[in-house]
Design brief:
Rossmann fold, alpha/beta, 35% helix, 2 domains, 6-stranded parallel β-sheet
């Protein structure tokens, strides 16, 4: 049990704790619940008199908005909505309130801030430098931050699920495949769709803000409606295969969700949840040849499928159960 008094600051508006029966238990909510942490809105931290006396304060800094093409050309003129926040001495002001260590928790890919205006890039770097330590999504992210801050403690926080509302779900494993994102470069939905086609079963996709116009007209692709996390997990439990060729390395919740139900998932080897839970199905994100061969093998080789399914469930409990996560986290503080 972690005894420290802990607070989280994010862009979400609520104040207080996250209960075990929260219907939208995304990974950041799971962290807060597991740590019995109090949550505050980062935009109001300066005026909140209750944000005081914490041993550890964890900041999930908003990603904000960028206005560049993939090659760095300006698409539209705009102001990053977090520019004003970046210019504040957040860490200093938190510590002035009598709080202890302040930690940055990675949000999105580590390169995201590279598309900020130059001044905001420097402000963001200075914010990271002012934090006592950095928690990353993956080992591959740790190498990046350790290169920038060789004398700072950097380590993965670990993606987490709280299964209070889903532990009674019995997977049905219908003959269908789920892909982990829409047809945008960020999610790699087109590549996932092409690989999933090798299963020769109906293909489904999630609906997100990145869903493209006319994506719904793609042959043999049905989109799930937007839903709360516990609803999503109930639907996910009915799938036999998962594919997530997402090039953007982030928290890896899709692979972890699949592993919970023993759904073999082909995906990006740079994502910890993918590599640890599906070691035989993890490939370099651009290695579609290897991904295709694995999809065919999963379809044709029942023993291989069962081994991958059993490994995913076993490794979920071995690496990502709440008890393991808490012990690992306690050792990281």
């Amino acid at each position: 049990m972690i005894q420290s008094k802990i607070a989280f600051l994010t862009e979400m508006g609520f104040v207080g704790k996250v209960p075990a029966n929260h219907p939208n238990m995304r990974t950041e909510f799971a962290w807060m619940h597991a740590l019995d942490a109090d949550h505050y809105n980062i935009h109001l931290f300066g005026a909140d008199k209750n944000l005081t006396g914490y041993d550890h304060v964890f900041i999930i800094f908003p990603k904000g908005k960028t206005f560049l093409s993939s090659e760095g050309s300006t698409l539209v003129n705009g102001v990053n909505p977090i520019s004003e926040l970046l210019r504040q001495d957040i860490v200093g002001r938190i510590k002035e309130k009598g709080n202890g260590s302040v930690h940055y928790v990675q949000e999105g890919p580590h390169w995201w801030y590279n598309d900020y205006e130059i001044a905001d890039q420097i402000y963001f770097y200075n914010f990271l430098a002012s934090c006592d330590s950095i928690f990353t999504h993956n080992d591959s992210d740790s190498y990046y931050y350790k290169g920038l801050f060789p004398n700072k403690k950097v380590r993965p926080i670990g993606t987490l699920m709280i299964d209070t509302l889903i532990r009674d779900i019995v997977p049905t494993k219908e003959d269908k495949a789920i892909i982990g994102g829409n047809f945008a470069r960020w999610y790699g939905g087109f590549e996932s769709y092409m690989i999933a086609g090798n299963f020769e079963v109906p293909i489904w996709a999630q609906t997100s803000h990145a869903m493209r116009e006319n994506e719904g007209s793609i042959d043999n692709l049905t989109h799930l409606p937007r839903m709360m996390w516990c609803e999503w997990m109930a639907v996910l439990s009915t799938f036999k295969y998962g594919v997530h060729m997402m090039p953007t390395v982030a928290a890896g919740t899709f692979a972890l969700n699949c592993a919970y139900f023993g759904i073999p998932c082909i995906g990006n080897q740079d994502v910890d949840t993918q590599l640890l839970c599906n070691p035989s199905l993890s490939v370099a994100v651009n290695d579609l040849e290897a991904a295709r061969e694995l999809a065919i093998r999963l379809k044709e080789d029942k023993e291989f499928y069962n081994n991958c399914s059993n490994t995913a469930k076993k490794h979920y409990h071995q690496f990502y159960s709440v008890e393991v996560w808490k012990e690992n986290f306690k050792n990281q503080l």
